[in-house]
Predict the 3D structure of the following.
Amino acid sequence: MQATRDFSHYVRHLGPGLSHIDLAVEGVSCAGCMSKIERGLSALPDVTLARVNLTDRRVALEWKGSALDPSRFIDRLAELGYKAYPFEPVRAEAVETEQAAFLLRCLGVAAFAAMNVMMLSIPVWSGNVGDMIPEQRDFFHWLSALIALPAAAYSGQPFFISAFRALRARRTNMDVPISIGIVLALAMSVVETIHHAEHAYFDAALMLLAFLLAGRYLDQSMRRKTRAVAGNLAALKAETATKYIGADEICVVPIAAVQAGDIVLLRPGERSAVDGTVIEGQSKIDQSLITGETLPVKAGPGAAVYAGTLNLSGALRVRVAAASEATLLAEIGRLLDNAVQARSRYVQLADRASRLYAPVVHAAALVTMLGWVAWGASWHDAIVTAISVLIITCPCALGLAIPAVQTVVSGAMFRSGVLLNSGDAIERLAVVDRVVFDKTGTLTLPELDVTNASSVPPDVFELAGRLALASHHPVAAAVARAAGARAPLEGVEEVAGEGVRGRVNGLEVRLGRPSFCGAELIADETLRRDPEASVVAFRHGDARHVFAVRQRLRVDAAGAIATLLKAGIKVEILSGDREPAVREAARSLGIDEWRAGVTPAEKIARIEELKRQGAKVLMVGDGMNDAPALAAAHVSMSPVSATHLSQATADLVFLGDRLAPVVTAIGFARKALLLMRQNLWLAAGYNVLAVPLAVAGLATPLVAAAAMSGSSLLVILNALRAHRGAREFG
Amino acid sequence: MEVLVFLVPLALALGLLGLTAFLWSLKNGQYDDLDGAGWRAIADDEPAPDKPAP
């Protein structure tokens, strides 16, 4: 029974006879790969477009006619040595891409207009002290207005819209003072131009817009990059299901194409992608990702199967239940919604700063105006001076202060294996004083490992590994991986539910249950020494060996925990796993506080309790049972092997087999928060220096321009220091 | 100062030209793959245009 693959779900039809598909490709890293893939795919008949995007690691493909099956492309890429999966952009990603393009367009318009207005301004600035006649100056001012007004109206949209939304909701944000500043600067410049005045602030307003848009764009492109990587990872995990399309006919389809009532096949070694009930077959199921419990459960007809669980021994036919109505998922989803809502009330640092900054600035402007009137100046002069105070204090560098640091630090985190999922995660991660770890898949590696490899002769180990390649069973797969086996033995047959056997040099070799290999005694002894392990036996002629297989702690876990403790961060374990396993892990890592057998709801309760005590909690977890707890914590992290749900919920995702990224991420975040605060003070301080000039009525457009570009430059230079993390975190 | 009659429209036109060029390049997808663009410039040649007949 050979499965066909159906990827038609991912194909977009562009027009008569023209189809399009996006593929996420693993391992594209250089120009060589790029041209190899493009050439290889273009050589297929009817392909009209094959273009690699090296930034996103994706391939866009277009072809004529409907004869071509998309799986052909995937096979072709496999021949070329690349693993590819059809890719469906998540809606959030499509929206972000659109926004980024709009921001870039606005930035382009603002920057070009600023350059042109600046060219007109320089003769005015120098002409004011020289021999420029008033008519020429007015003419230049009118020309500036002609460029600046439409340009500002277009490129200011992101700020105006956001400010309007905030005001309508009776809130204020960063964009409100910005919008007020820009509109006032432009309006006053027009009025001044009409009155043949010496100064107009068109250049300052446009420059302000251009700098702020640059900050916004940096911020956006950082988040977009992370989202693209996360999207690819989701696609590379190949969330497909094997669906019955006839009585005996099966077909591999993407999860999105599976509906309630469908019947899917779950082979041994496969992770279930659906919730459902078993209708045929007997097997054992590892539910550790859902419940945290590492002991496999038996599954027969009528048993429930949840998405994310691993089928261990036999093939199962599963009838799909409506995933959204499935009790466990629904429960977790509901908890998740509540927790996410609770956290969205957190106010971003920049908005908090502007909330303080705006009233001070507006009050200063008001005092200036009243002061000048009291001093005996005309109302016109007083208002002009007040507005120039507003313009000169407009938080231009403030808009760059945070995105610039975020961009630099997210680049540095990216290089050390941490991806950011949400923009304000850095600020929240920096204040963490307690880390809560899940055990299974977080402190331990997601894959099983052989623990007694040193007590087995290397040649036996290698032979067992090669034999194990023939089996789908996860325990056998662990043996094959640990032995580093690459060449499978020939003529190996699988005995269902028992193991695999073959022949080497005339001697029979077997790998499987201890009873299958006649090694019950050795197996019992191994289990007495390590009751948590699973065992698999190997027999070569009359020689018998037993491998103990279990989840292993990440290699650097103890070191990472020690660093955290040394930095004064408290650490605890919340695990759904059984007590002995958790106690053992906590003991070997030097963690005093741990709880075992915890349900998702209890995890949330514990985190809420910690929050009430005033702790800022970082939750690190991977299972679906962790997703609500991740959302409830102040900030959260997931290993990249996590289930889709918890990966999407976590603020940060870390790659690789080590725990060190968790520690370095905190180090980077602390440094980044320090720099962000410095930057805010720098930006505010630099502008405050210019305030006395403005209050005294001496704020020429030249001073405004210098203050803006000077403070922006300073802030960017300071942000570049974020590429090194805080010292105590290595 | 009559030269302004030429220079001002010229300056405006050049500015607009630059902006149009930028917007065109943006729409053309030239900023979609910033990493790949650098490598494409030094790639040996274009992908083989000749395809075997279907």
Summary: Residues 4-27 of chain B form the longest helix (24 residues). Chain B touches chain A through 28 residues (CB under 8 Å). The radius of gyration of chain B is 20 Å. The helical segments of chain B are 4-27, 34-42.
